[in-house]
C-alpha cells in the first residue's frame, strides 16, 4: 500500500514543531533516530517520509502518530494567510530552499533593510 502524503504540509509541520522547541536539525535527528540531512530534506520538501520515519518524528515530538497526523490538517501555509501576490509566494518558497546559515543572513538583511527604510521614510 503506497502512502500519499501532503509533503508541503509535512515539511512545514516538522519545521514549525522543531523551531517551537528551539531544536536544531541535529537535535531533532537525534531524537527521531535519523540524520540531520534527512531532516533538512524533509523540511525543504525534497523527501517524503516513510511510515517508520513519521513514527520516529511523532515520538521525538512526544506525541502519538495519530496526533502528529491530525496536526497536518492545520499545518499548511495556506491555512495561515492568503498570499498578497505571486512575488510573496515565490519569496517564501525560495526561503524554504535556503540553508539555515543562508536564512539567517537573509533575515539579518531584511531587518537592516526595514530599518533603513524607516530611517529614510
TrEMBL record:
Pfam families: HTH_3 (PF01381). Gene3D superfamilies: lambda repressor-like DNA-binding domains (1.10.260.40). SMART domains: HTH_XRE. InterPro entries: Cro/C1-type_HTH, Lambda_DNA-bd_dom_sf, TransReg_Diox_bact_type. This is Helix-turn-helix domain-containing protein. The keyword 4Fe-4S does not apply. Keywords: DNA-binding. Residues 14-68 form the HTH cro/C1-type domain.
Amino acid at each position: 500500500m503506497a502512502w500519499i502524503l501532503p509533503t508541503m504540509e509535512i515539511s512545514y509541520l516538522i519545521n514549525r514543531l522543531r523551531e517551537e522547541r528551539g531544536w536544531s536539525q541535529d537535535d531533532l535527528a537525534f531524537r527521531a533516530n535519523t540524520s540531520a540531512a534527512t531532516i533538512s530534506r524533509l523540511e525543504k520538501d525534497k523527501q517524503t517520509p516513510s511510515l517508520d520515519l513519521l513514527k520516529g518524528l511523532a515520538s521525538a515530538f512526544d506525541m502519538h502518530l495519530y496526533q502528529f497526523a491530525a496536526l497536518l490538517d492545520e499545518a499548511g501555509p495556506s491555512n495561515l494567510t492568503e498570499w498578497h501576490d505571486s512575488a510573496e509566494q515565490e519569496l517564501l518558497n525560495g526561503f524554504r530552499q535556503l540553508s539555515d546559515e543562508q536564512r539567517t543572513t537573509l533575515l539579518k538583511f531584511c531587518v537592516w533593510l526595514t530599518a533603513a527604510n524607516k530611517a529614510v521614510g
